[in-house]
């Protein structure tokens, strides 16, 4: 037995076969690595990195208003910024009030402008049509697998009438400000667009109805605080019950007449609007 253990320890590994010893631990780590190497490598999903080449310039428009958290960026902005850096891109972060000057200071147009969805109206007027434009929440919905259905569902806004129930659902439980996007801005935009007075209902965090039948439409946030499994579940609930569910970025872009432009950087999604 001792001789066998010495043989195992001294044996040189080959590409396809080698000996291990549970008693001495010889080659255990190598065995684990060999097994792991057999697993096919999956293409890692990215928020924005797959849309970029190294050294591409990306402008991130991050409004700092009463609803912005003091002293920090919100999670989607942080994650997109990190993804740009991880893919060797060049990120320029500005408020919408400095966007025009930032564009003028660049020697060449940016590869992409990504904005907070609530600033879509102003940003779309500043950014030249030749420069691709999208939003953090659109990229987040794409990352979580809910963007395809969100684009298909957004046309339900055109049939909203007085008294229709609309559920506005957020994945986080942040403190509501006077100009909160979910409870204030989104309802106002929907009223202006539809010229109707629907009834708005709100959920946040892990709260999400199992019965969506009372609602004509669900408008969901970008789901940065929810994992993919939860968003898949929520989409399935809506699909199974035949209730359209869109998201903040898609709804805002649609109501401002710029949806085609904001999904153009995502060819697979843009095909839905052709």
Q: Summary?
A:
The protein is an alpha/beta fold and 274 residues long. It contains twelve helices and eight strands.
Describe this structure in words.
It is built from 12 helices and 8 strands. The model is unreliable at 1-12 (pLDDT under 50). The radius of gyration is 24 Å and the shape is globular. The chain is an alpha/beta fold. The chain folds into 3 domains: 2-38, no CATH class; 49-141, Rossmann fold (3-Layer(aba) Sandwich); 145-255, 3-Layer(aba) Sandwich (Rossmann fold).
List the helices and strands and how they pair.
Layout: H1 2-10, H2 28-38, E1 57-61, H3 75-86, E2 90-94, H4 99-105, E3 112-115, H5 120-126, E4 133-135, H6 136-144, H7 147-153, E5 165-170, H8 181-194, E6 199-204, E7 217-220, H9 228-240, E8 245-247, H10 248-255, H11 259-263, H12 267-270
Parallel strand pairs: 1-2, 1-3, 3-4, 5-6, 5-7, 7-8
**Which spans have pLDDT < 50 for at least 5 consecutive residues?**
1-12
Task: Specify the structural class.
Answer: alpha/beta
Q: What is the number of E strands? A: 8
CATH T-level fold name of the largest domain = Rossmann fold
The arrangement of helices and strands along the chain is HHEHEHEHEHHEHEEHEHHH
Mean pLDDT: 86
The first-level CATH class of the largest domain is given as Alpha Beta
Strand order of the largest sheet: 2-1-3-4
What is the CATH architecture descriptor of the largest domain? 3-Layer(aba) Sandwich
């Amino acid at each position: 037995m001792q001789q066998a253990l010495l043989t195992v320890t001294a044996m040189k590994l080959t590409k396809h076969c080698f000996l291990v010893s549970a008693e001495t631990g010889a080659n255990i780590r190598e065995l684990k690595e060999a097994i792991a190497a057999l697993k096919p490598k999956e293409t890692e999903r990215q928020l924005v990195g797959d849309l970029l080449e190294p050294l591409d310039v990306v402008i991130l428009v991050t409004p700092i208003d009463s609803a912005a958290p003091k002293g920090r960026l919100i999670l989607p902005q942080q994650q997109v910024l990190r993804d740009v850096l991880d893919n060797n891109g060049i990120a320029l972060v500005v408020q919408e009030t400095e966007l025009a000057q930032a564009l003028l200071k660049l020697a060449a147009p940016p590869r992409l402008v990504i904005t907070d969805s609530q600033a879509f109206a102003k940003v779309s007027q500043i950014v030249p049509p030749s420069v691709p434009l999208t939003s953090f929440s659109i990229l987040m919905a794409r990352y979580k697998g809910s963007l395809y259905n969100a684009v298909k569902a957004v046309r339900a806004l055109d049939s909203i009438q007085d008294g229709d129930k609309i559920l506005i659902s957020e994945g986080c439980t942040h403190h509501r400000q006077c100009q909160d996007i979910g409870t204030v801005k989104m309802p106002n935009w929907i009223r202006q667009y539809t010229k109707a007075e629907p009834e708005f209902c709100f959920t946040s965090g892990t709260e999400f109805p199992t019965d969506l039948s009372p609602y004509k439409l669900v408008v969901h946030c970008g789901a940065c605080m929810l994992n993919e499994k939860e968003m898949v579940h929520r989409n399935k609930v809506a699909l199974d019950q035949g209730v359209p569910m869109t998201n903040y970025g898609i709804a805002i872009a649609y109501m401002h007449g710029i949806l085609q432009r904001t999904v153009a950087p995502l060819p697979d999604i843009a095909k839905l609007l052709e």
